[in-house]
Amino acid sequence: MLTRLTERHVRGLPVLDQPLLMGVVNVTPDSFSDGGRYVEVDAAVTHGLQLLADGADLLDIGGESTRPGATRPLVAEELARVVPVITELVAAGAIVSVDTMRAEVAAAAIAAGAAIVNDVSGGLADPGILPVVGDSDTAYVAMHWRAHSTVMAQHATYEDIAAEVTAELAGRVDAALAAGIAPDRIAIDPGLGFAKTADHNWELLRGLAALDVLGMPVLLGSSRKSFLGVLLADGDGVPRPVDDREDANTALTALAGLLGVWAVRVHEARASADALRVAARWMGSEFGVSGATGKVGQA
Ligand code: PMM
Predict the structure, then answer these.
(1) Which of 73, 180, 207, 292 sits 20 to 30 Å CA-CA off 126?
(2) SS3 labels along 125-150
């Protein structure tokens, strides 16, 4: 079951001697997972600091909801949501990632101190984002994506999902490299829930080792997603509500930890931090990352 995912030396990305925990701070009125809770700068910053206190290693700040059917904010709106929050959290010493598909937002976030650009479209929504990252020393997460949220359900067709996601991500990695992003600064993400049905997500997780051919660290984001709700549906088939999927996600974090992913993206940090420690202890030296000190840093 264990693959090269555990052996990777991640030089240009923040590293630990175990998978990283990325805490989500959605500064949006409409995210499916936590929309409206952290729209004010102070609330978002307080939440970010709490995630760090609960065990998150870095924070992913987003100003655009990607829930199915969501309408896009104006660029100015997205900038106004994320930049002040990034500035304050960086000032507080956090390692910050910006969750954006837009070049303009990525540029402003980098200027505000973001260390990672997490692009759920892998450069497809706004190809200008790739040279922006290429011209910086920022890391880049390329997620598997086929279309914007309003229409992504129509694109959820696959013959062999693991092979297709791998091939499509290979194309995005090539585009990132061509834009000057160094290979050791790129991570990939299979994009659970993006143009994928619940069954697709499980099939993709089952075939996750296929991503190994790309030789890139893997980020996984399953937290609160609807495929967990479907899995945990009650006797009448009603999906488990968003706020009650945490235990299942903790199980998923532990399994991802055993597989040796680079990072998991979560909305609540405490239980997943514990799960990663369990997985790391179980694996012992298998998690050894060159030069790791036990603290997050640029190795
Ligand atoms: N999922 C969401 C948003 N951003 N980024 C990455 N890299 N991977 C994901 O799976 C991912 C993401 C949707 O969840 P949210 O709206 O609760 O943040």
Answers:
(1) 207
(2) CCCCHHHHHHCCCCEEEEECCCCCCC
User: What kind and span of H or E run contains 230?
Assistant: helix 226-231
Amino acid 290: pLDDT: 33
Which residues touch 61 (CB under 8 Å, ≥6 apart)? 25, 27, 44, 48, 82, 85, 86, 89, 96, 97, 98, 99, 109, 114
Q: Whole-prediction pTM value?
A: 0.92
User: Which of 102, 224, 225, 245 does the annotation list as catalytic?
Assistant: 225
149-167: per-residue pLDDT in tens?
A: 889 999 999 999 999 999 9
Q: What is the largest CA-CA distance in the chain?
A: 53
Q: What is the mean pLDDT of the chain?
A: 89
Percent of the chain with pLDDT over 70: 91
Cβ-Cβ contacts under 8 Å for 102 (sequence gap 6 or more) = 75, 78, 125, 126, 129
Query: Is residue 28 lining ligand 1, measured as CB closer than 6 Å?
Result: no
**23 Cβ closer than 6 Å to some ligand 1 atom:** no
Buried b / exposed e along 162-188 (16+ C-beta atoms within 10 A): bebbbebbeebbebbeebebeeebbbb
Is 225 among the catalytic positions? yes
| Model pLDDT, residue 284 | 82
Helix (H) / strand (E) containing 110: helix 103-111
Q: Closest ligand 1 atom, CA of 28?
A: 16
pLDDT (average), residues 110-128: 97
How many other CB atoms are there within 10 angstroms of residue 118's CB atom?
Answer: 26
